[in-house]
């Protein structure tokens, strides 16, 4: 090789190496954190529909029997069936539900799992958020935290109601705790929830959640979502909510 050619190609190689490391450093790929390691615990049974802790008609007049039967037996059941189908042959195939929620992304490839994993978790959580003969007001440390954040239970209720009314189309409204025990209200579209840390703006531990999809209230309340939201306060299981708040901190 002639000296000149050698120098030229040496220069070129040096330039190419520098350019490639520059491109690597600037490409969006380099900014994406490594995916979390697979969970140690694994699921051995398919996902299944949990039994309700009460009879479908027990929430009347706040939620009617037929809505509860269809909501639990048809809608929730469909999320469970579709989730079992969606995770097949994916990395999530034997992941526990919350391990899926913590890892799911907004990529199109994850969409079916995202919707159905969210649907299964959200409804399971919702059935445990409501109970016959409940209502009342929060107590203990949760009540203190509500007063601290929102000033009073009534002010909290105003803000939660406003958030629930603001959900356009189908979605959920949540009262959540962050890692320091601070409360916040958030909404999510479709079946997203605050555990989906790669998707939501503010990640948190849900304390209570309300389904504002039309299927949750339309048979009884038709277009009157505010009446359904008001009825929800009569059936909130504040005892369960308080336990969730204790465990969140
Ligand atoms: Mn629903």
Number of domains: 2
Query: What pattern of helices and strands is seen along the backbone?
Result: HHHHHHHEEEHHH
CATH C-level category of the largest domain: Alpha Beta
Radius of gyration: 24 Å
Shape: globular
- CATH fold naming of the largest domain: minor pseudopilin epsh fold
Oligomer kind: single chain
Q: For the report, how would you describe the main beta sheet?
A: 3 strands, antiparallel
Which architecture of the largest domain per CATH?
Answer: 3-Layer(bab) Sandwich
- Order of the strands making up the biggest sheet: 2-1-3
Strand content: 5-15%
Q: How many distinct beta strands?
A: 3
Quick gist of this model?
The radius of gyration is 24 Å and the shape is globular. The protein has 10 helices and 3 strands. It has helices at residues 3-26, 28-31, 65-87, 97-103, 111-129, 140-150, 153-166, 218-221, 225-232, 238-248; strands spanning 171-177, 183-189, 205-211.
What does this structure look like?
By secondary structure, this protein is mainly α. It is 50% helix and 8% strand. The protein has two domains: 66 residues, Helix Hairpins; 109 residues, minor pseudopilin epsh fold (3-Layer(bab) Sandwich). It has a three-stranded antiparallel β-sheet. Strand 1 and strand 2 form a beta hairpin. The N and C termini lie far apart (70 Å). About 9% of the residues have low confidence. The structure holds manganese (III) ion (MN3). Manganese (III) ion binds next to helix 3.
């Amino acid at each position: 090789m002639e000296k000149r050619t050698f120098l030229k190609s040496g220069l070129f190689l040096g330039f190419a190496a520098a350019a490639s490391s520059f491109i690597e450093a600037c490409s969006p790929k380099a900014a994406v954190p490594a995916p979390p390691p697979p969970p140690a615990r694994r699921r051995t049974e398919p996902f299944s529909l949990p039994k309700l802790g009460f009879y479908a008609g027990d929430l009347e007049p706040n939620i009617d029997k037929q809505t509860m039967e269809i909501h639990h037996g048809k809608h929730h059941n469909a999320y469970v069936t579709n989730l079992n189908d969606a995770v097949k042959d994916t990395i999530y195939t034997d992941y526990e539900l919350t391990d899926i929620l913590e890892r799911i992304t907004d990529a199109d490839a994850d969409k079916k799992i995202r919707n159905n994993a969210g649907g299964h978790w959200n409804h399971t959580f919702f059935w445990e958020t409501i109970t016959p003969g409940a209502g009342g007001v929060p107590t203990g440390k949760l009540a203190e935290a509500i007063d601290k954040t929102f000033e009073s239970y009534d002010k909290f209720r105003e803000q939660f109601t406003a958030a629930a009314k603001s959900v356009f189309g189908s979605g959920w409204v949540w009262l959540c705790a962050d890692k320091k025990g601070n409360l916040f209200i958030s909404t999510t579209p479709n079946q997203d929830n605050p555990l989906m840390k790669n998707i939501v703006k503010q990640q948190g531990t849900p304390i209570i959640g309300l389904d504002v999809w039309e299927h949750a209230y339309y048979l009884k309340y038709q277009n009157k979502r505010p009446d359904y939201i008001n009825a929800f306060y009569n059936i909130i299981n504040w005892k369960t909510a308080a336990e969730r708040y204790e465990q969140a901190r």
